Structure formats: C-alpha cells, structure tokens
Amino acid sequence: MEKSKVILIGEGWDQNLIFKDPINLYFFQSSGILTKYNYKNKSYAQIETDNPFYFIENNKESYFCGYISFNFYQLTEPINKNINKKLNFPLFSFLEFKKADLLKENKFNKIKKEKKEYLTITPNSKRENFIENIKKLKKHIENGDIYVINFSEKFTVNNFAVYDLKSFFNFLYKKHPFPYSIYFEFENPEKFFLLSHSPECFIKKKGDKITTCPIKGSANRDKNLNEDLQNMENLLRSEKEISELSMVVDLERNDLSKICIPGSVKVDIHRKVEAFKTIYHTYSRISGILKDNITFKDIIYATFPGGSITGSPKPKSIELIEKYEKHSREIYTGIAGVIFPNRDFIFNICIRTGIFHNEKIDYYSGAGIVYKSDPQKEYEEIILKTKSFFEPFKEYYGYKEILFESKR
Amino acid sequence: MFFRDLNILLIDNFDSFTYLISSIFEEFNVEIEVKRKEPEYLNKYDALLISPGPGTPENSHISLNVYKRAKGKIPILGICLGMQIILYSEGQMIKKITPPKHGEKVDIFHSNNFLFNELKSPFKGALYHSLGFYEVPENYKILAWDNRKVIMGIAHKKFPIFGIQFHPESFLTENGKIIYKNFIEYVIKWKNQKLF
User: What is the ipTM of this complex?
Assistant: First the structure.
C-alpha cells in the first residue's frame, strides 16, 4: 500500500486494485509533445507521433493507468482554438505497469491533532458574475445555439499542507463510497495528487462491447425515511431532469454510433435511480458493439469529452464553456482509469475530484443548465456540492469549520 | 433490407445527432458520406441530407450553398435546422418558439404523406428546437404539425424536397427509423424513374 502510485476502489472497477513500481510515464502536453519518462534510467525522451496513444497499442503486455484532461478536447472536437488560458497539467498522463495487485484492505489513519483553523474555500469568480453567466447561457439556449450545457466553477484552497493523502483518500471512500474512486500520485513533470471519488462511468470496454453510463439529476438523501423517499420521487418526476438526461442519452448514442456496428447501439437502461450513501442519482446505460479494428485512440476521439459534462450539441457547448468559464477545467470532467493488457478498459468521469499540488487544492463543481434552470438555485447547488466534498476534511484533519471566501 | 447502390451526402452542421442519422442509413446498407465542408461535385450523390445543428439558418452558410446547388436535382431531406435552412432559403421568416422544447416527447400529427407510411397519427416524436415555423411559402405544403401548430414536416409541391422539424433518430421518437426507410425507398424510386 505504501509504495502504490494508483489505487482503484469501488464496484465500478470490477476489482479493487493497486499499482506500484511504474516502468514508464507517458505525458502529452498542449504543445503537442509526447514525453516518455523512464523510471529505471530516470531519463526523459520526446516522441514525435501522429497518434498520441501509440504506446497503448505498442505495449500489449502492460497495464496503463492515467487520466485525460478535459482540455484534450483540443484534439477531439473541432472548435475555435484561440483560447489563451493557462494549463498547469499535461493533457494526459499514463503510468505503465507490468502488474496489478489486489487491494486487500482499505486502511486509514485519522489525524488526531485538534486544529483550531478554518478551511477556507475561494471560488474563482464573484457570485453575481457567475449567475450573470448562467443567464447568458440561458439566452444561448433560447436562441437555439445549444439545448443543454454543463457549467462549472473552480474553487481553490490555499495553504493546504499535502500530507497523508493516500490515507485520506481511503477515509473519503469510507465516507462517500462512490463506485469509480481512484487515487493517483504523479511526480513528473511536477508532483501532484489526484483524488477522485466519482459516481460516474465514462466508458467501459469489454471485448467488442462498449458501455457508457451518463448521470444527470441528483437529490439529497435524508435521515427521515419519508423525506428521503419524497426526494427520490421528486427527482424521478422532475421534467427538467427527465429531458436533461434524455438529451445526454441521444448525445452518447450519437458518439457511440461513430465507432459501433450500425444498429448495435442500444439504450439498455433509462433513468434508473442509484442510491448512494449521501445522494440519489438518475442514470442511463447505453451500449454498442464495436466495429472491427477500432483502437483506443478511435474510441477516445469519437466520444471524448463526455456528454453529461459538456452539453448538446457538443462542439458548441465546449465553445461556450470556454467562453464563459473563467478557469481551465484541466482534469476536472476529464477521465481517469485503467487499460488492461487485453486492451479492455474502464474510465470514470473526473467529477467529485480534487487536485492537490503546491500546497493547494483545486476543486470544481458544475450544474446542468437548461431552459428551465433557475440561475440562483443552480449556483447554490454548486456551492452545496463543493461543501459536501470538503465536509470530511473537518473530521480527518480537525478543521473547525468550512468557510467560503467571497471573491473581491 | 439492402439499398447498396445508393450514395447519400449528409452535411453535418456540427451537430450531435449526425452520426445517429448516418448509422441508421448504414443499417439500411446505404452508403453515406458525412461532410462538414462543401463538396466540389454533387453529381455522384443520389440524395442530400441536411443535419440538425446549433444556431440559425442564416449562419449555416455551407448547408445553404449545398441546398441551393442540389435543389431540383436530387431528393433533399432537412432535419431540424436542416428543415429550417430549406424554408429560410425560400424566404420564410423563422420564429422563436416559447417555451423551447429540448429533449421532449410530443404528439406529432401527420397527413399521411409517404414519409410517414406505417406511422399512426399522432405518434410520439422528439423535439430539440428553440426556433420554428407556423407557416410555409406558397410552393410548399405542410405534412406534419404538433398541438401548438408548430410545423413538424414539409414538402415542396413540385421538387423532391422534404423537411422534418422533429428528430426521428432520437431514442424518444417511436419507430423513427421508419421515416428514414421511407425516404430511402422514395430515393430509389426517384433514381429509377426520375419522378417529378
């Protein structure tokens, strides 16, 4: 456990796995350069290639664990590319391993130290500006530019000394046992940690079958049984949530149709409630049978980024996300997961995901905006979601309270 | 079903329905080429499809050009924005529909045009639009509508030009594939007899 670089935990992964002793790291930067870092020789090599994922096709005995950042859309979606936002992390990083170990137990050591401090979270934009932008997006919906869009805010915690994150990850999993939880530590080109407690599957490939399970719609769980059931019923009846998920289902059917045998793409499940410890979600499942000779690259280029975290139509939604979001999403709403030696793979969508680097935490939350959205409510929901992620920090690290500092 | 000798052009208006449409045509064994740029020649195609998409017809320059070039030469079917492009080209004013319908199932009524063969009236169809029409130009007829009287299907009175506002390719539309099959059958007849 101590030496592990990657931990996969939750029902979504089929098996809970840990990976240690990577042999290579492949990272791809927005400049278009793919770099290979060899752990044994501690050496870097730059590779020129048309296929940034060529190493996945070439090393068929290896496991690859990694992430693809949202901003990788630069390669997969045709939108206007003059966006000058700074990126801190490579567009993807994959660690290569020769073997995987089963995760036997999920241990954590709680920090006993009693702190008197507050955990202060700073949103990236002012509340009024954020709400104003939601209103502008609704105008785009009214004008027929888009039907639905996922709009997010970035939150930063400064002065967070990074320690014991692996143990904290396990603690968070106990609190929020989401099925696609994954932990990463990267040392190159810079050191950072990725803690993802995601409920959502981006793509699962098993043989020639490919499956995606978009989530849209959520409701809080309640200690009172009647209230709890009422929340679930309201979620199931909400017209806004019904149409939002339906739109994403059509979008995913479209994307899978690019790489699947015509007629094989099916909606297996539509609007099923999944009850987690702290939240209800509604999700659908769409699957298809891959055409012959479809590679990892083909699948990613056909489907990335996911429909539930962009919008429909996808290219226009991404363009508007870049226009109205002040931040770069980077790993948030990208994907993280594992590619097995038989070239089956499982990736989550990096929501409920914290990036820990340089004594800072980057966290993001988003909301689906449709014609019927109430801008104030959507903003409050984003704040609530963020608070719920940070709540366990109090118990683990002994923070007194969680505060939101308003941006000046 | 086999329609192997057909070659159809699908102009993609940067939409997230295009590949659903093309895969249905492929399922019927029709050769279909998806293009985002204006093709140099149209004479190798047996029909033109204009995809749905974001925005307004007036900004859909590629589709507008291809439509003008294909009009009267090969059968044309416009879907959602595609239909709007056709009517806009014919001078019909487009209106904002309030409230817009996105990802919603509604009743579609039709007048038994061949496009709707095998579909009862009304049937459930999926809507994804903010803009639409309540009227058509004189040389067009209305084939389908919803209960707000928003036009859901059109045809030219003389040329083989058709449009539908709803989305047969959506999983929300009942038996939507039939509409595309009906169109393919029409294109085959047209090709063999040069109907019109």
Answer: 0.95
